[in-house]
Amino acid sequence: MKIILMGLQGSGKGTQAKKISKKYNIPHISTGDMLRAEIAKKTALGERIKSIQQGELVPDPVIIDVIKDRINQFDCKNGFILDGFPRTIQQAKSLDKIVSVDYVIALEIQDSVAIERLSKRSQCRKCNYIYGANQRLKNNICKFCSGEVYTRKDDYPEAIKRRLEIYHKETEIILRYYENKNLLYRINGERSVEEVFDDITSILKK
């Protein structure tokens, strides 16, 4: 079961990917988390991808190599969930040369909803858990690992605006690409987490 989750930043891809991963026992591959980890470790790759913190897309050859290496690992033998990739039509076509995707699920929300959600969320530096606006914390300490919870630079207003512009310019073309391949399923992502997840599981039963 090879799945791609797509949608505006703040559409709930990460939350839904974790739920799918748990239910179907396949790994959730978040390219954003992978790239931020490289930046945090100050690796050579991390130096090349610092632009992600300003809302820019990582160069295709870099991210494609990262994805190819990851999906060839043993835990992906029964499938995986890609969250945050592909983001350009070139990436989508390159992925086709590596693996055949089974489902492309698009979580659709309005820009105004994305901006509201992103501007109010925060993330743990240690375990990467994302907290929504309704999740109250004491002293910005993660309830799961006691790590520091902070607001990511790409969740500041200017970076959010830039990320949405990039999505509309580059990524929406991919939806039409997968729609033409009869792989695309569109879901209203503005509803509750459970309502969205119920729709996703119904699709995965097909």
What is the CATH architecture descriptor?
3-Layer(aba) Sandwich
Number of strands: 8
N-to-C series of helices and strands: EHEHHHEHEHEEEHEH
Number of structurally distinct domains? 1
Q: Mean pLDDT, nearest integer?
A: 88
Overall geometry: globular
Largest sheet entry: 5 strands, parallel
Helix-strand makeup class: alpha/beta
CATH topology: Rossmann fold
CATH level 1 name: Alpha Beta
Report the helical percentage.
40-55%
What is the helix tally? 8
CATH superfamily: P-loop containing nucleotide triphosphate hydrolases
Our estimate of the beta-strand percent is 15-25%
Rg (C-alpha, Å):
16 Å
In terms of quaternary structure, what is this?
single chain
Low-pLDDT sequence parts: none
Distance between the termini: 12 Å
Q: Would you give an account of this structure?
A:
- This protein is of the alpha/beta class.
- The chain has helices spanning 13-24, 31-40, 44-48, 60-71, 89-98, 111-120, 157-180, 193-204, and strands spanning 2-7, 28-30, 80-83, 103-108, 122-124, 130-131, 149-150, 184-188.
- It has one domain (2-113, 156-204): 3-Layer(aba) Sandwich (Rossmann fold).
- The radius of gyration is 16 Å and the shape is globular.
